[in-house]
User: Fold these one by one.
Assistant:
Number 1:
Amino acid sequence: MIVHIMIMVARIKVEKREGEEAMIDIHSHILPKVDDGSKDLEESIEMAKIYLENGINKVIATPHYIEGWDNTFKEKNLEILEILKKALYQRGLDLDIYLGNEIYTTMDILEHLEEGKASSLNNTRYVLIELPMFDIPLFIEDLIYELLLKGYVPIIAHPERNAKIIENPNLLYTFIKKGALAQLNLPSLEGKYGDRIKSTGETLIKHNMIHFIGTDAHSKDKRSPRVKKSLNLLKLMVDKETYNRITYLNGIKLLEDEEIIVDSPIEYKKEKNFFYLLKTKMNIF
Ligand SMILES: [Fe+2]
């Protein structure tokens, strides 16, 4: 006689605060052994626990996709994702994970998406793109136009970390006006990448230039999904409606491939501080 043993696993759910929805991270390197993110399945499981403790219950795994690199393609990533999902289910960890990529900006992004090598976010119209750290390619506006023309919506990953946008936040204003969206790395708000990135992040948020949040988590330790502190800082910066929109509502629409209507970005105007006024008076410019 075959005896079926039912193993009851207590579901470990996200820690939510009263009146708040759980959050959605659209930028994570939680997939094990794919890129420079999680080093193995055990680390991914630990990361999943941290996500739930920090109020996040939906995550889009976005391994790097860089043209010319030895990338793991979409089909293989889906297999790895299934292994991870099974492992989380067996441990009662109630974290939903979807597949995407963080695609490094080249003019050929479209080709890689259409060949089925790179993945949009949860197979939707939304595509997470990564700018170089210190520059912005001259073709970026053509790329945005091209992607939109083919029905994709580019989301610029962590613009607050790009040196040119740090110098001039209105570059992002222009890209949003052309139809792009943007995702902020939560650790930027804590100053984890330095003061200038922190203040650029704050500027972009205050000027309606941020539409999603991400942890950009790579591990369970140094670059982990421990983002409670950053979320508290974000909450002090925006009203409740905006907070819900960028931590949850826009993410839900994204996962369901719905159109996301955003508030118009506000153009950044450099503050005219004492030294600026003095220089103007002395005609130093
Ligand atoms: Fe990333």
Note: The first helix runs from residue 41 to 53.
Number 2:
Amino acid sequence: MPPSTPPILPSILGVTHHQFVAACAERGIGSGRAMAAYRAFYLEGDASGVPEGFEGWIPPIVRRLEEEVSEGTTIKFCQRLDRQTGTPLSNRAADGVALGVLNNDGRVRHLDIESVIIPMIGRTGRKTHTLCVSSQVGCAMGCGFCETAQMGLIRSLTPAEIAAQWWAARWIEGVEIDNIVFMGMGEPLDNTDAVLQAIGCLTDHHGPRVAMSCVTISTVGRVDGLRRLSEQIQTPGWKRLGIALSVNAPNDSVRDRLMPVNRRWDMGELQSVMQRIVEVRGARKILFEYVLIPGVNDSMDHAGQLADWMAPFGKRDGKAPVGLLNVIPYNPRRDSPWPAPDENDVAAFVARMNELGVYTKRRRTKGRTAMAACGQLGTAEIRGRRFIGSPGTEPAGAKNGSDD
Ligand code: SF4
């Protein structure tokens, strides 16, 4: 069942085939023609049959970076959102959506969104590709270890703009996408309606056909959004949606410092809502992510506290644990106050967690030099610039200060 929020129509992007056929019918376009257009657009990258008025605009790729890793090539690409270059600012703002940011000289700078294609080799030796998508331009959550946080939130993406990242990866970069993770710019549960709508499209079996079990929402732990997810995954077809939670701290005092969201919902509340999600989803695994930062959250004491917090997600009654801990060595952001951790310290932390009964793995760092690794998405040029939009359209937490 698709989520309740209406999509932004007319566009072929970011909608399910049911929604597209229904919207076409309202304009007198038959279901046969609508279905053929939908399938050709997603399955062959052919937009020629899309009925007039429903064209999906794919923001152009304006920058791309590649890095060779042992599994293949990591590709980071940036799409530029504003197609109306040259339109007076008053008109740009009239559609109620921020389209750009102002430079010091008052000229418009463009909004770019970033995505990363990450090659992986599965246990069977098969090569797969994971697409890391952005759900917002910038982010309001302010995590201390994150590059994107430096931008503040400029605006949330529409379902079409989220789906356009998949389209660009598949049909411009030419890569078959097996998995999608919402781990790029933005907090997906700060834009829940659009993210769920986009997932409805991305998993459509006449469209991108990504399996629901291969889509993962990675969140900082907005408890309101997690409650909403616990309802969504009870609707048919959604139970297998992947969920990853960025824990990143062994206790509230460290987490308050690293992740301001913890001051709103502490680790006790977070643990409760995650237990509720486990009740609803049964044995399906949940990924807990832990960015390991030297001198901040990497001591053996911290490992003990973290193992206690994770106990409800461990082995119970002889059943396999639902919680998997993924330790991510910190990738220093620009102007970072902390260095990357020492390899031996990473190995010691991982070993200690396993000794304490928490199934723990270390995530290999890919894309570090391309600034495409976790927590490093963010466009330095537009950090801290001024938001443009209709008065009152600034999303909560949007940066609207003076030019730097
Ligand atoms: S880690 Fe995620 S939620 Fe936190 S500031 Fe960065 S993008 Fe936002």
Note: The longest strand covers residues 112-121.
